[in-house]
Write a structure and sequence with these properties.
single chain, about 0% strand
């Protein structure tokens, strides 16, 4: 556990040396919180997961990537006192993460820490996945249309791949909703 403790001290030192607008600020906070979460999983020390949650709650407003919301959802789900209140917080955070980045939807489909959300809140989970995959698909379609119009061949393949992933995810989400 000494390596975990050393990592936490390093992250804390980096955070203390940064302005909260610094690009690495939320990443350092996230890494520190994730280290606390891993220590919780290794030791069952509830204070570790509480610290992880509190650290992320402190900076969630500074993050536009959805990573902090995604991790808060995970942390609430694995908390030893997780109940309806924790799960409602988790589903709210996962919704925000899905809105920010389609990759969070792909990650959430297989993340073992989110199994409760996928099972007990499956309608909301898949509804959020479907809604947001559609939003991301439409965004990528607009980007592709613009690149085609501008004859910008540098981005066409990359945007086409993102569009296909979003379309496939929307189809999967709709199927899952139909099964519920």
């Amino acid at each position: 556990y000494n390596k975990f403790e050393a990592a936490i001290k390093s992250f804390r030192a980096a955070i203390d040396g940064m302005d909260d607008q610094h690009r690495g600020f939320t990443i350092a906070y996230n890494n520190m919180a994730t280290t606390h979460k891993e220590l919780y999983k290794a030791t069952n020390d509830e204070e570790r997961i509480n610290t992880a949650i509190n650290d992320l709650k402190e900076i969630v407003k500074n993050d536009s990537s959805g990573l902090i919301d995604y991790n808060l959802a995970c942390f609430y789900c694995i908390h030893p006192k997780a109940d309806e209140t924790y799960y409602k917080k988790a589903i709210g955070h996962i919704k925000k993460a899905f809105e920010c980045d389609i990759e969070h939807i792909f990650d959430a489909i297989d993340d073992v820490e989110l199994v409760v959300l996928r099972n007990q809140y499956q309608k909301k989970f898949w509804d959020y996945a479907c809604q947001n995959s559609s939003v991301h698909k439409n965004k990528h379609q607009k980007e592709l249309d613009k690149d085609l119009e501008d004859n910008d061949t540098n981005n066409i393949i990359q945007i086409s791949e993102k569009l296909k992933k979003a379309s496939d995810l929307e189809i999967l989400s709709r199927r899952k909703l139909d099964e519920i």
